[in-house]
């Protein structure tokens, strides 16, 4: 986190401590955590299916279930990438400049 950054994102705040990043990587590589995560998602999917099975409007229930499942996948993607730092890729042999007067 740079001193000039007044309002850092939660991801930036998390990444400001290298211990957080290492612990996050260790957690994601832990087979017990991976299994727990898989079973939690399966359990959530099951609860969605059971909750929408008795809905009187199956089209709406299907849409709701789909959005909930998409939300779970978005959360997991965000969680898994929490410690990943984005790096701007510079094409080889090109010098970056903001001078457009050429």
Mean pLDDT across all amino acids: 88
How big is the Rg? 21 Å
Query: How many individual helices?
Result: 4
Q: How far apart, in Å, are the first and last alpha carbons?
A: 34 Å
The helical percent reads 55-70%
Number of separate strands: 0
Question: Could you characterize what this model shows?
Answer:
This protein has 102 residues and is mostly helical. It has a domain at 10-80. Helices cover 63% and strands 0% of the residues. The chain has four helices and no strands. The chain is elongated, with a radius of gyration of 21 Å.
List strands and helices in order, with pairings:
Layout: H1 10-15, H2 18-29, H3 31-53, H4 58-80
Helix pairs in contact: 3-4
Brief synopsis:
The chain is mostly helical and 102 residues long. 63% of the residues lie in helices and 0% in strands.
Which characteristics define this entry?
4 helices; single chain; mainly alpha; 102 residues
